[in-house]
Amino acid sequence: MAAPRLFVDVEFAEQEPLTLNAERSHYLCRVLRLRADAAVSVFNGDGSAWSARIEQADSRSCRLMIYSRQLAEAAPLCRLHLAQALLKRERQDYVLQKATELGATDIWLLQTERTEARVRPDRMASRLEHWRGVLQSACEQCGRLRPPALHVPTTLEELWPGFEDVSCYILQPGAPILTGPAAPADTALIIGPEGGFSELELRIAAAHGAIAAGIGELVLRADTAPQAALTIVRHGWRWAAP
Predict the structure, then answer these.
(1) Is there a domain that residue 133 lies in?
(2) 131 plus 232 within the same structural domain
(3) HEC profile of 115-161
(4) Is residue 242 included in any domain, yes or no?
(5) In 3D, which of 201, 199, 180 has the Cα closest to residue 189?
(6) Closest by alpha carbon to 103, among 49, 144, 151?
C-alpha cells in the first residue's frame, strides 16, 4: 500500500525532524490512525515530494523524520486559468477539487452581477484559508505537487490585467463549440453563474478579446461546466501537462 501523501505548509529539510501542527497531527494519527514508524510522503507545494516516517505519533504534535526526495514536478510551462463565478459552499469546494484534478494552474473566483454567493469582507481571510485547504487536500488525493494558485475574488472587469497574452474563452450557451488551443499555451476559461453573465459583462469580455464558446446543446450547471471545459482543453492538449 502506498504511503499516505501529506501537504504541510512549512519549509523542511532532508534528514531533519518535522513537527506537525495540531490539524495535520490529528489527520495522521486520528483520521488515518497511523502509528510510530509508519511511512508517509510529504510535500509543501514547491514541486517536490519527500519520504518520511513518523517518529512520535501524537495527535496534537506529531513528529516526522524527513529522509529523501522521492519525486520532483517541473514548474508549468504555461498557465491554465479557470475564472469561475462564486458558488455556494459545497458546490464551490467541488469545483476547486475537480479543477485541481484536471490540471488548472490558477483559479480566479468572480463576483458577477448574478453570482449566487457573496463573501463579506470580514470573512474573506477565513474563506480563502478554507479554499486553499480544499486545493491542498485535492493535491494529496490526485498526486499533484503544486496546488493551483488561488486569487482573491474579483470582478470580471478587474480580471483582465492578469490575462495579457492569454487565450481567453468565455462560456455562453449556443456559442461555437469550445476547442481551445491545439497545444499547451496560456489559456483562460471564464465561466459564469447559473443565470449567466449579464449583457454588460459579455460586452466587457468581448472588448478584451474573449472568445465566446459553448459546450453542446445542453445547459450545464455552474459546477459542471468547469469540469467539461477543462476536460476539453486538456484533451485537446493530449493531456500534456501545462
Answers:
(1) yes
(2) yes
(3) CCCCCCHHHHHHHHHHHHHHHHHHHHHHCCCCCCEEEEEECHHHHHH
(4) no
(5) 180
(6) 144
C-alpha cell of residue 110? 468572480
Cell 454567493 belongs to: 117
At residue 219's C-alpha, the angle toward residues 215 and 221, to 5°, is 100
E strand or H helix at 56: strand 48-56
Residue 241 lies in a domain: no
- Across the range 47-54, mean pLDDT stands at 97
Kindly state the helix (H) or strand (E) to which residue 17 belongs, with its residue range.
strand 17-19
First-to-final CA distance of the chain: 29
Q: For residue 72, give the nearest of 52, 51, 53, 46 by alpha carbon.
A: 46
61 Cβ contact partners less than 8 Å away, ≥ 6 residues apart:
19, 20, 22, 25
Q: What is the pLDDT of residues 162-194, one digit of tens each?
A: 898 999 999 999 999 999 888 999 999 999 999
The answer to whether residues 47 and 146 touch, using CB atoms and an 8 Å cutoff, is yes
